[in-house]
Amino acid sequence: MHLFDVNLPDGNTYQESHTVLAGLKLPPVYPSKELGNLGLSVCYDVRFPELYRHLAQMGAEVLFVPAAFTAYTGKDHWQVLLQARAIENTCYVIAPAQTGKHNSMRQSHGHAVIIDPWGAILSDAGDKPGVAIAPIEPSRLEQVRRQMPSLQHRVFI
Q1: Is 78 exposed, middle or buried (0-12, 13-18, 19+ CB in 10 A)?
Q2: Domain boundaries, the chain
Q3: At 72, is the pLDDT very low, low, confident or very high (cuts 50, 70, 90)?
Q4: Interior angle at CA 58, CA 54 and CA 60, nearest 5
Q5: Which end of the chain is more exposed for a tag (fewer CB within 10 A), N or C?
């Protein structure tokens, strides 16, 4: 939904709006027998918590955030933003991530991760090509949502 149009201090400029159309509607939640209800987003969307709150309100239990975060922003923001989305929505987060150099100026951060609803990193694939694997346990989701029922305590809906 959100397009990455920025000029970073490392000299890289990104203008997704030149080649990509932004989404115009909030995404639905997709039921999955294997993983639970899935909320989908892409890359830069992770900086906009209202999207994830919408997905949680619609019943999402697992948030997918595939991305090609830049090495420059990823080192400081990738993990903390994903953990915040997991914690504030008491959802699992599965975040596949591109890694490596794309050209002389562009490098992706990598670190595909799986995070539990408490914000714990269950698996991190690091900065080399690899796979992050971890169990998605409905009982853990239920436990965290019982212990921290913040979704039920919202005042401004």
Answers
A1: buried
A2: 5-150
A3: very high
A4: 90
A5: C
Which residue has 């892409």 as its token pair? 42
CB-CB contact of 77 with 43 (8 Å): no
* Residue 74 backbone dihedrals phi, psi, to 5 degrees: -60, -40
Residue 71 has a CB neighbour count (10 Å cut-off) of 18
Domain 5-150 has what CATH class? alpha beta
Beta bridge partners of 94: 64, 114
Count of all residues that appear for the chain in the document: 157
In the predicted model, is pLDDT for residue 157 greater than 80? no
User: Look-up: residue for tokens 């639905």?
Assistant: 28
Token representation of residue 87: 């914690």
